[in-house]
């Protein structure tokens, strides 16, 4: 048996609860991802490269990097998440696993939520963990780095959830990566604005409670609505395919 073979989704019985089904999908996606390590490393390497090359291409001055560092890290994280979104449903679509997911007795939106959570665990969370090191590289202060990590911890799941909708809509299309970017980037702008605004407020000594609460509201809204929209988009893409 080929060691690189992708594990398939086993039929989930009617008696199995929704949580158990989500757990099975989540565990399978983690197992598949660790068998395809290039898909894991590419967003992280891209994140590090963008942050590392930006001072060389623009300005290495400490004052400039201290002011623009949060924006650099946020934009790099946004683009890194965007880079990985095309693989969220693509491999399952190509090998027929996605059709099995749609036919499961459990609600599709819960299974989509499990896949999106796995995507964030493999992409968004590592970006958050790398942020303190890269924050020091762009001369961010300790308080700014802490607030930046907090905003990314709240914001990157929103990026994955919104991105799941775009990935589902563009599934099976030619040049899906370009179309995905055109669809998703405008929806990312509010998260980017408030994410960088929170860090700027912290650097100025202002209270960031309102900013954090608003970003948390974005997350709650995304968790509530995005899985339903992505599940509907998957059904449309599969019916058209």
Automatic annotation (TrEMBL):
InterPro entries (alphabetical) = Cyt_c_biogenesis_CcmB, Cyt_c_CcmB_bac
* Short name of any one Pfam family annotated for the protein: CcmB
**Whose protein is this, by species?**
Marinobacter salinexigens
NCBIfam families xref list? ccmB
Give the family per the record.
Belongs to the CcmB/CycW/HelB family.
Q: Please explain the role this protein plays, according to its UniProt record.
A: Required for the export of heme to the periplasm for the biogenesis of c-type cytochromes.
Please provide, in alphabetical order, the Gene Ontology terms of the cellular component aspect for this entry. plasma membrane
Subcellular locations according to the entry = Cell inner membrane
**Keyword Transmembrane appears in the UniProt entry:** yes
What is the protein's membrane topology class?
A: Multi-pass membrane protein
Is-annotated flag, keyword Mitochondrion? no
Keyword annotations of the record: Cell inner membrane, Cell membrane, Cytochrome c-type biogenesis, Membrane, Transmembrane, Transmembrane helix, Transport
Q: What is this protein called?
A: Heme exporter protein B
């Amino acid at each position: 048996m080929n060691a690189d073979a992708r594990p398939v989704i086993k039929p989930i019985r009617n008696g199995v609860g929704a949580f158990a089904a989500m757990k099975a999908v989540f565990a399978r996606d983690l197992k598949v991802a660790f068998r395809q390590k290039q898909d894991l490393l590419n967003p992280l390497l891209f994140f590090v490269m963008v942050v590392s090359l930006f001072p060389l291409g623009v300005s290495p001055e400490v004052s400039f990097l201290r002011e623009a560092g949060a924006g650099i890290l946020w934009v790099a994280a946004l683009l890194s998440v965007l880079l990985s979104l095309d693989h969220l449903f693509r491999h399952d679509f190509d090998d027929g696993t996605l059709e099995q997911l749609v036919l499961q007795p459990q609600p599709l939106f819960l299974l989509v939520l499990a896949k999106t959570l796995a995507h964030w665990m493999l992409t968004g969370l590592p970006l958050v963990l790398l942020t303190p090191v890269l924050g020091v590289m762009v001369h961010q202060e300790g308080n700014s780095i802490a607030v930046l990590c907090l905003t990314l911890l709240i914001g990157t799941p929103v990026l994955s959830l919104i991105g799941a909708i775009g990935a589902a809509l563009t599934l099976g299309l030619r040049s899906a990566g370009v179309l995905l970017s055109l669809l998703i980037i405008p929806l990312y702008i509010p998260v980017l604005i408030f994410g960088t605004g929170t860090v700027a407020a912290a650097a100025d000594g202002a209270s960031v409670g309102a900013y954090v609460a608003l970003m948390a509201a974005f997350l709650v809204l995304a968790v509530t609505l995005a899985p339903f929209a992505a599940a509907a988009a998957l059904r449309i893409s599969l019916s058209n395919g």
